[in-house]
Structure to design on (97 residues):
């Protein structure tokens, strides 16, 4: 049960960071990714770029921030480094909300 709660707390941190960052700051890929990396590291996740839960949470954050259309597609591609599986997981999270 602790692991499930910990994972949910981690996902919520990623969702909230993504939402707040993209709602209040001009998108800066290195700065955004650094923030995600710091949250992941604090939660024991080292390869967050290939972590399905992280990418899904980013997608949820993009949706919550009301990022749509070509801007959404640009952010998704940038965050995922144009990797198909990463983009699919971001899309999955985006579609969940």
């Amino acid at each position: 049960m602790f692991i499930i709660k910990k994972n949910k707390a981690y996902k919520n941190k990623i969702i909230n960071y993504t939402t707040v960052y993209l709602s209040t700051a001009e998108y800066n890929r290195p700065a955004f990714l650094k923030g995600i990396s710091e949250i992941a590291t604090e939660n024991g996740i080292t390869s967050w770029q290939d972590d399905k839960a992280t990418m899904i949470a980013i997608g949820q954050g993009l949706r919550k921030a009301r990022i749509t259309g070509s801007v959404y597609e640009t952010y998704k591609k940038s965050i995922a480094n144009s990797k198909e599986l990463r983009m699919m997981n971001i899309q999955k999270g985006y579609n969940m909300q």
Q: What stands out?
A: Residues 2-96 form one domain. The mean pLDDT is 92. The chain has five helices and no strands.
